[in-house]
Design goal:
By secondary structure, this protein is of the alpha/beta class. It has helices spanning about 40-45, 70-75, 90-100, 105-120, 135-145, 165-180, 190-195, 215-220, 260-270, 285-290, and strands spanning about 1-10, 15-25, 30-35, 55-60, 65, 75-80, 150-155, 185, 200-205, 210-215, 225-230, 245, 250-255, 275-280. It has 2 domains: about 1-220, 3-Layer(aba) Sandwich (Rossmann fold); about 225-280, 2-Layer Sandwich (Dna Ligase, domain 1). This is ABC-type multidrug transport system, ATPase component.
């Protein structure tokens, strides 16, 4: 559905996005992850026809956005990270206003608004947007992004700053949108959420691609299985090796080297110590991400 080739965006001498190339399939949930300033929002805005690329191309449904941006915008629903709303307006009037901008017939719009409010658990009867909490306003913004029944949804941090229950609700709602045939691209700092939702994930840093694949592929190709050994021993004179840490009355070893695990286990047994637990630790996407960003995880006490 989407083909991106050599995408680049410059602001003066600063390069926000540098030679990104990827594709997004119809019906896919595609995540974009990166540290602050990595170029995520700029990429999403270029995909939404809100920012013009300095170089490269974007095709959505075989339409070059530089040639026909209006045609592309008609099939996109965009949710920015910060979505200012007309807080003095009643919710239904606000959504009707945007439906008119998209030339949605009024009777179709009213039916769609009723359905969206129900799906999003929004009781909007005679309520102004400014009367809502942040989470409820975020739901209004999501309803606005769907008012034209777009094929493609581009969401920037849809759960940003929300309480866990509202964030979980929005996560499940995004999952339901995929079941209804929507293609979704979104960014989020919550990597647990990304891992559960996304079919594929693009990790970027300094505007450039670091890795692209499913969460399983990323873990397989860019992480090591860690081993955690927990034990008790009285004589620990020769156990002060790298990776062994003391936690109150016991010791913990976290390492990627099974040979070290076997060596320490043998020493503990010979000293008549006791092995409390030995288990493998498969890194979550967040741990892999931190590793790709240069953070050493083998020193953890957990």
């Amino acid at each position: 559905m989407i083909e991106v080739n050599g995408l680049r965006k410059e602001y003066g001498e600063f390069v926000a996005v540098d030679r990104l190339s990827f594709n997004v399939e119809k019906g896919e949930i595609f995540g974009i992850v990166g540290p602050n300033g990595a170029g995520k929002t700029t990429t999403l805005k270029m995909l939404s026809c809100l920012v013009h690329p300095t170089a490269g191309s974007i095709q959505i449904k075989d339409i070059d956005i530089s040639v026909n941006p209006v045609g592309v915008k008609s099939i996109i629903g965009f949710l920015p990270e910060e979505s200012p709303l007309y807080e003095s307006m009643y919710v239904e009037d606000y959504l009707l206003f945007f439906s008119e901008l998209y030339d949605v017939e009024k009777h179709v719009a009213r039916k769609r608004i009723n359905s969206l409010l129900k799906d999003l658990s929004l009781n909007a009867a005679c309520k102004r947007i400014g009367d809502f909490s942040k989470g409820m306003r975020r739901k209004v913004a999501i309803a606005r992004s769907l008012i034209n029944d777009p094929e493609l949804l581009i969401y920037d941090e849809p759960g940003s700053g929300l309480d866990p229950m509202t964030s979980r609700f929005i996560t499940e709602y995004i999952r339901s949108l995929k079941k209804n045939g929507k293609t979704i691209i979104f960014s989020a700092h919550n990597l647990y959420q990304m891992e559960k939702l996304c079919d594929r994930i693009l990790i970027i840093k300094d505007g450039r691609q670091v890795i692209l694949g499913s969460s399983a592929e990323i873990r397989k190709n860019h992480s090591k299985i860690l081993y955690r050994l927990e034990f008790i021993v009285d004589d620990h004179a020769d156990l002060c090796i790298e990776g062994v840490k003391r936690l109150q009355d016991r010791f913990v070893l976290v390492t990627a080297d099974m040979g070290t695990v076997n060596e320490i286990t043998g020493r503990v047994v010979r000293k008549r110590g006791r092995i409390i637990e030995m288990r493998t630790m498969e890194p979550a996407l967040e741990e892999v991400f931190l590793g790709l960003m240069g953070v050493d995880l083998t020193s953890t006490d957990g």
